[in-house]
Amino acid sequence: MKLTHDTHTVHTKHPFVIARGGSSEWKLVRVRLVDRDGVEGWGEAAPNRFYGETTETVIAALAKLAPVVERVLGEDPFALENLESEMNTAIRLNGSAKSAISAAAHDLVGKRLNVPVYRLWGLDPFKAPLSSFTIGIPSTEKELVQRVEEAESYPVLKVKLGSDRDAEIIRAVRRAAPTKVLRVDANAAWTTKHALRMIDMLVEYGIEFVEQPLPAHDLDGLRFVRERSPLPIVADESCIVASDVAKLAGVVDGINIKLAKCGGLREALRMIATARAHGMIVMCGCMIESSLGISAAAHFASLLDHADFDGAALLADDPYEGATIERGQIRIPNAPGLGVTRKAMAVV
Ligand code: MG
User: Which tens digits make up the pLDDT trace of 202-220?
Assistant: First the structure.
């Protein structure tokens, strides 16, 4: 078993801006596992500075993890559970690097068995919820209306808030999309008092739920807001791995899983099981990722209440083909493993 990696730079069609800032260019890392029969598994790391990762830290983590991965999968290429556990023993955090390896190992197992990953798990991909499409924080109202018009085919929109123009943004989106399901994400930008004021207003606009209104560590604040909020509160930045889910039970209504945070597909499944045990809403989101990254999460989409898998749909130059979210419907190729191929014409 051999682990190698390469990097690819992708660009969003428009600058993607959230409460913490934004960018148009994203450098992703592809992990390749090749077994002794020449079968290949692929996974993608989408590092995010907020969680302490950059392209460079991913590459450094891969160098540390490679001997562990090659040993564990060299002994047994099907040892997916043991793989994640040994990676977690080898290094802490580095969720996107570990997730890329986990995804590549699942891809490889699926290909060896000639089944899609969702089949390994016994899941029905047609039970997946619709995926939302994200409207980033615009610089002008005209730009905002254009973004909403471009998202015309998506029935569910996730609106990024957390600027000083939140009220005007939500009003403009609702006017431009009067019948769509709208959810909002403040990306930890509000105070408790401001969150309650905002939620009062959001109720008037028929918003479905509010993601991460307060800073990640402020669990007392989240509980305070949740107890007074008519809208469900979903934790994203506060919820990294399965052990966080138990701490958030009774504090928020739901969790937003991301592979780049949690460090692997098995850990994501564990987060889903933990949240279900506590009667919580389960959502899965993504970073700016190519179809390679999105496809890994799409295979467990049928276990979710809400999905936000638009990372690749926001791109102008996705180098891969895999899962898609046409008109919000999550579609997975009926092909072995993750079902991802490199686009013939892509320059990566
Ligand atoms: Mg979020």
Answer: 999 999 999 999 999 999 9
